[in-house]
Design goal:
This protein is of the alpha/beta class. It starts with a helix and ends with a strand. The chain has three domains: about 50 residues, no CATH class; about 190 residues, Rossmann fold (3-Layer(aba) Sandwich); about 60 residues, Winged helix-like DNA-binding domain superfamily/Winged helix DNA-binding domain (Arc Repressor Mutant, subunit A), CATH 1.10.10.10. The protein contains 14 helices and eleven strands.
Length: about 350
Amino acid sequence: MEINDTILDWFCLIKTRGVGSKTFWAMIKTYQSASEALKHVANPFPKANAEKRLKSMDCELILANDVLFPSLLKRSGFCPPLLFYKGDKSIFSKRKIAIIGARNSSVNGQKIARNLASNLANEFTIVSGLAKGIDASAHLGSLGGNKSALAIVPFGFDNIYPKENQKLFQEIAEKGLVVSEVPYGETVEQGMFQARNRIISLISEGLIVIEAGYKSGTMATATMALDFGCEIMVVPGSPTDPRNLGSNSLIKNGAHLIQNHFDVLEILGVQNKPENKPETKQNELPITNNVDNLANKNELLALLSEAPISLDELSLHLHMGIPELLRLVSELEISGNICRTSRNEIVLNRGL
């Protein structure tokens, strides 16, 4: 990381106790520079400590006055003064759409996220938060075919969350861009998730919601995005599935209902003809018959919804052989948790 006086001054000011993004920009406006502002704060963060920390970080840093810094991030007084990143810096200046949703998402929700991301990545960089479920599926979809992904993470790069997405983090850092407002070595705090969601809301011109509970981080992100003038687009879901209560309420209150990526392109003013953009196939997942790796009943139920899903798709998603899957499905049928359709697809048995 290249370090100069401006970087040191900005880092010291934002790391000074009591100085958040809003205070930082207010002080810059008053004193015209971070260097001057540091003369008017109590106990400024020491420059020697700042230089040592920055030199020890295995990443790069971009200031809000950089020409490549995302202009949409500046829509609010809460714009982060600096961001740490790994990957392709040019992605900062590209058009972006966020895809977010439930961590405990259904197979169909993950499939929709992956396909939307894959097709929209022809026109936009796809943004998400590296969480389980919809976020991870959106990242995987946007990485297909050498397309880029942008992950906004809540903690420093020395503390990737969740741990199971460490490999995905590395792939995005190599092929796309990973961004954090938090430097290495920071103590984990709950507020860091809200700060991450704020960046997702600010950096994107459109935000797609797939499966969001009524009181969820996804809903909080969508609300922030709406306040920042972002276009909110929602994939509708079954009204009996709690994972759709929030997302369906967004539609009820005026968000765009979308059924495919062409709807998104139309909403955002991108000229596109369906015959010129064939649906991109999902990346295939390996199957294993290792009984030790079988998902339990609760994990399978968490993936299902009232939307039918084939045994083949469940087998691919769970890395489970068909014989083992059929035994599990039979047990859940007997207990009344699931049903099979006339086409032998699986649906969650949830009464109205």
